[in-house]
Amino acid sequence: MASSRSGFAALLRAWRDRLSPADAGFTTTGGRRAPGLRREELAQLAGLSVDYVLRLEQGRARNPSAQVVGSLARALQVSRAERDQLYRSAGLLPPQDGTVSTHVPPGVQRLAARLGDLPIGVFTADWSLVWWNTMWSALHGDPAVLPAAERNLARALFGDGPAHASMRPVRSERGQDAFAESIVADLKDALSRYPGDARLDRLVRELRDVSDAFARLWATRTAATPHATDRKTIRHPEIGDILLDCDVLVVPGADLRMVTYTAASGSSDAGKLELLRVTGGRTATALP
Known about the structure:
This protein is an alpha+beta fold and 288 residues long. It folds into 2 domains: 2-89, 434 Repressor (Amino-terminal Domain) (Orthogonal Bundle); 106-286, Beta-Lactamase (2-Layer Sandwich). The protein has 13 helices and 6 strands. It has helices spanning 2-18, 39-46, 50-57, 66-75, 80-89, 106-114, 134-140, 153-158, 162-166, 176-193, 198-210, 212-219, 268-279, and strands spanning 120-123, 129-132, 170-172, 230-236, 240-251, 256-262. A hairpin with a 4-residue loop joins β5 (240-251) and β6. α2 packs across α4 (66-75) and α7 packs across α13. The longest helix is centred in the middle third of the chain and has 18 residues, at 176-193. The protein is globular and about 55 Å long. Mean pLDDT is 89; it is low at 283-288.
């Protein structure tokens, strides 16, 4: 067991040292003693405490969960083979084929990091949010405050837990009914492709139990359009309503969706996005 922990710790340190801060979306201003990520930056990306990351790197923290290992693998932008190696070094089985993948390829993360002025979130086939930038947090609220299982768009729409309670009011130009129908259609498609995924099956069963609207949409046999391009008005607690183009970009081969928000240059909504970028959405009302 000690050997396994030391191997896991060594991988964490080595892969943190090799990852460029710029590729992870951090601005470098000099003063760094090493080229890689700082420990606190890795902790921020993975949604973990700095102390816990330190104990993992020193081999003092035992038995990290599959959820923790997956978060670290995404934060470190490792390949699929390296992800599996990290799981095994933690004494865990890697994610199996036939289940919804939560792996975000390094190229996708680098692309998203370079678009840091825009709110970007990366979702899995079951609409679980597995990667987001600071602009996404500024627009929608910080997903890191939610349990990992609650970072799911379907739970936010139809559930009765923290995700639903924290979701900011959104109006869809396509209409809220069409939006809800498209999310259910995407879950149906995911379940047809991953029938053995226990986590996805639990999600569907849970939402059918707690939401009459979800149960009704799940039972209908009418084909719905998958969630794609839309215009949305998001009510932000500090800056008010902001109208944005919402585009859903499919990542071929990874079964991921990258959701982006943009506004026309020079528009008042573009100005609101810039205000969010500067303030992080926390002190917008204090600015002129």
